[in-house]
Amino acid sequence: MSKADQLLSKLPPPTLLPSFVTDALNEPRPAQSNPVLNATDVTSQNFHTPMFSPVITSKNEENVELPASPSNEAVADKAVKSEQSSSKADLFNWMKGSSSSIFSMVAEKAKNSVDAVLTTLDPQMKDTLNPNTFDNTDIVVASEKEIVVSAVREGFQKVFGKAVVRGLEAPDQPFAAQLVGFSAASKATRYCIDSVRLHVVKGPVVSFERFIVEPIESKWYEFGLMKLNDMQRNIDLEVYTQSVPVPAAIVGLISDDTPKDYEHISTGFSIPVAHFMASNLKVHPSEWQEVMTGVSQRSSLLAASVSLAMAYKIALE
């Protein structure tokens, strides 16, 4: 027998294995620690009633105690309300200021529109709508011709913005019907101003006369002299209109038709140039200048009036 066989023969026989299944079946069940309660047991036990505090209280509740110090939500609500009130106030103030300015602009535009309509229908309304700017005095024109008075009025209103201009008829002057030369024109305008001064003591007086002159032999031109005199301020001003060429033949006819014993022959001729020019050109006597130069008599008068008003404004300063 080998040594291995001798060792194996000395081992004891195997023991039986335990049966866990049988032990589990035969083991007694422990008592339940948390048995299910019956309905009768539930009623017999004492339970604490839970306390419920609603967030929104009933309207009928009275004497609700408020906390001593305001919460963060209350402070935030007050800040929001104050900001909203300030923004509303700013908005209303802006609307109030803007509405007043808008209404004033609309009213001013409406007034200007009405004034424009009235002055277009009746140019004399400008003096009523626009107050005087010459210390409660007005400008008097020594003529009742509308073309002269309206031109002076428009010229002074362009320079001063507001001006009252009226025409006053001057008496018959001891001068020729057609003035010849600068000296004769200056004397005639001065005579008209002095005649108006008998009725108008204060304020500026404007006079206008047309005349012809021969600066070069056989070259005749017609000019207009506009003179202003302000006796209180010791202001004397003169301006001339645009020159208009006059044919030498027309001047020759006027000279031939003037009687040799004409009482005012020293200052000119007895027949105006406009009479012959209008007859030859087949136009109205006030339109022959426009036919010859392309500039109407009204335009030349207006330009001279603006120049005279500007010179007067500078003299006042």
From TrEMBL:
<dbReference type="InterPro" id="IPR029001">
    <property type="entry name" value="ITPase-like_fam"/>
</dbReference>
<protein>
    <recommendedName>
        <fullName>Protein PRRC1</fullName>
    </recommendedName>
</protein>
<dbReference type="GO" id="GO:0034237">
    <property type="term" value="F:protein kinase A regulatory subunit binding"/>
</dbReference>
<feature type="region of interest" description="Disordered">
    <location>
        <begin position="1"/>
        <end position="36"/>
    </location>
</feature>
<dbReference type="GO" id="GO:0005737">
    <property type="term" value="C:cytoplasm"/>
</dbReference>
<dbReference type="InterPro" id="IPR026534">
    <property type="entry name" value="PRRC1"/>
</dbReference>
